[in-house]
């Protein structure tokens, strides 16, 4: 038997989390292993595996993250992952809101230990973006 989803347990009130905000469709709470002060997870109440599993739930979750940050000028990363190779460790859609400060030393996952960009020799996953960037350079 598999372990219950930890985020479903939090949403159902069977596991503790320090709540930041609650809506009828989404909750926001502090993660157990925050990487910066005020790191927050934004999680739909509906269990969906990742951002591609249900675009409507994903969009609603993103909207709530934006509402939570509206009115602040904080610098932050908004991060989500899909699959273990992309660093997803809980297989329930969640958005990380990671406040940042200049020189905080927190490396993004797409940089190697030396700070070099990874994947320079890989084909682009978004040829449309590449085309737009090329047109902007002209």
From TrEMBL:
Q: Spell out the catalytic residues.
A: 94 (tele-amp-histidine intermediate)
Q: Where is this motif: Histidine triad motif?
A: 92-96
One Pfam match: HIT
User: Which stretches does the entry tag as region Disordered?
Assistant: 106-138
One example of the protein's molecular function in GO is:
catalytic activity
- Domain HIT as annotated: residue spans: 6-107
The record's annotation in Gene3D superfamilies points to: HIT-like (3.30.428.10)
Q: Name one GO biological process term.
A: nucleotide metabolic process
Q: Which domain of life is it from?
A: Bacteria
Full protein name:
HIT domain-containing protein
